[in-house]
Amino acid sequence: MKKVITYGTFDLLHIGHINILKNAKNYGDHLTVGLSSDEFNLLKNKKSYHNYANRKAILEAIRYVDQVIPENEWEQKIKDIVDNKINIFVMGDDWKGKFDYLKEYCEVIYLPRTVGISTTKIKEDFKVNKNV
Ligand code: C2G
After folding, report:
1. Structure pTM?
2. Contact at 8 Å (CB) between 38 and 64?
3. Got the DSSP string for 75-87?
4. pLDDT band at 30; cut points 50, 70, 90
5. Mutation test of ligand 1: which of 4, 6, 9, 13 has the most ligand atoms closer than 8 Å to its C-beta?
6. Residues recognised as catalytic
7. What value does the CA radius of gyration of the chain take, rounded to a whole number of Å?
8. Is the beta carbon of 12 within 6 A of some atom in ligand 1?
C-alpha cells in the first residue's frame, strides 16, 4: 500500500483544498492529513474560523481522506513519515523547496496551487460584501 501525507489548516474548506487532497490521494492508496491544531495555527499566525475538532470532522467526511492526525509543531514531519510508513509527501507549491529535507525519508511532491481561491480571500470577500 502506497501511503501519502499532506499538512494544512484546511479552514473554510474550498476547491483549492479539495484539489490538493484529490491530487495527493491520486499518488497512492491511502492519504493521511496532518491537520494544524488551533495552537499550531497561532504559530502560523492563523486564526481559523472552525476549531480543530470541526475541521477534523469536515476532513474525515471527504472521500480522499483516510486518516487525520494533529499537526502540533513544524518538527514532527519526519516522525510522522517514519511512524506512519509514508511513501510520498505532498504540498501545494507555495511551499516549494521548504520541505526538501524530507527527501531522505520519502518522495516529496509540490503540486500547483488552485488559482483564485484561498481562505484569506473568502474572509476578505465576506468583509467587503457584508450582505453576501
Ligand atoms: N492550497 C492549494 N490551493 C489553494 C489554497 C491552498 O493547493 N488555492 C493548498 C496549500 O498549498 C496546502 C493545502 O492546500 O498544501 C492546505 O492549505 P492551508 O490550509 O492554507 O495550509 P497551510 O497554512 O499552507 O499549512 O506544515 C505545513 C502547514 O501546516 C501548511
Report:
1. 0.96
2. no
3. GGHHHHHHHTT--
4. very high
5. 9
6. 44, 46
7. 15
8. no
